[in-house]
What does this fold into?
Amino acid sequence: MKILMVTSEIGTIAKTGGLADMVAALTRTLAANGHDVRVVMPRYRFIRRETMVRHEAPLGVPMGTSERWCAVYETELGAIPRATVYTIEHDALYDRDGVYGTRSVPFFEDNALRFALLSRAAFQVCRALHWIPDVIHCHDWPTALVPVYARTLENRTEFDSTATFFTIHNLGYQGRFSAADAVEFGIPAPELEKAGVVVSTGLNFLRGAIKSADCVTTVSEGYAAEITTPEFGFGLDSEIRARGDGVRGIVNGIDYDEWNPSTDPYITPRFDSDSLERKAEAKRSLQTEFNLPVDSATAVVGIVSRLAEQKGFTALCGPTGALNRIADEIPVQIVILGTGEEWIERDLEQLSAARANVSVTIGFDERLAHIIEAGADFFLMPSEYEPCGLNQMYSLRYGTIPIVAPNGGLKDTVKQVDPATTTGTGFFIAPLDSDGIFDTVRRAVELRSVSPDAIDTIRLAGMAERFTWQRSMENYIAAYETTVARVRAAGRDGISP
It folds into this structure.
């Protein structure tokens, strides 16, 4: 198949979070299986032109009553054939240090126009290449106008047989803007309203994609079910329920070559399920790296996370938060790596400064993340909601037992431990509050103390789990084929005033 990925970030080219990893991994896997996959994204300031090939002809992108001229730079996604990345250069909008904003300006005020241009440019790049894809697959609110353009300005064009495919990675981020921002989109106001973008408070990009895309997916079956409810729907649950074909959940995979304890270049020593005893040495390496007392008897609880309320830090932090109680009342060491909201960073730094059994590193470091996954006994993820999550799958791979909230992708990928039968791969937190987190960590640590053999059985069960991108890709291909066949048989309804 010919597949166009439209994204705000991908892999090592531009990354702020898990979206970049997912798009890169899916693109690589599709290409490795013989599909012609191409990617369109902005060329931000930090993406070096020297490593790319510039197209000779400039790219004209109609926006409103004018045309914006862009340059196109081409590169490859690693060494993978059939995975070409086209970056759109438009200095007025993209020549900045951040993807969506900076630390001092978290969200650029012209993001509506920045990503509307990207969405419109995707079609223009295809025209310039004389390459019309079978599927345009776009991701999250920054590319949510792609299916809207397909039903409006690109209706009855050469893209009529191209299926638009939209993946929700996090419904909490919707791309909400002022109605005045729509002036430069070029879409007549009645059509924009019928497409679902216009709401009472202004514009909602994500709502437009949910109502306009030919197929909508999200990144786990559990999350697909949750977002149909008011609790997890962020005000869009009725729109999701209204889709006749629903929203399909396809669990992300992980890269088992990169996350492989037997070959991991970041950890000492390396190990696998046949040499699980060496994980104890990896734990000593972790304790040394993070300046914790080297003590094999003490359980290590690891956290690698974006430091945000969504990730459960409201229940973890503060004087009555779970972390204070865990550090003071349970014989554990706590290792935390992450960056995010300033109040959480301050709280964690204070926690670490006051206790010898807590180590906090503000920032992100790939090597340290691997060391934590390899050396910790348990990995804590008390997310308020988690569309998919990757760290619980990394933890399973490394024999580190996840302690997770029973929601979204966490519930889809972790099996609840039954101490009586020693089955399962992790512990579910219940209730999902400060007391529930504390009690679940306490139970896990107690089981390790009284029954180390049971813990090893649980570790091995987790290490045997497989969540491959090959399996995820096959599910995406099945969805692509079904959607393309439907669009070509029935056509796509355009939106006219």
Q: What stands out?
A: The first strand starts at residue 2 and ends at 6. The longest helix spans residues 469-490.
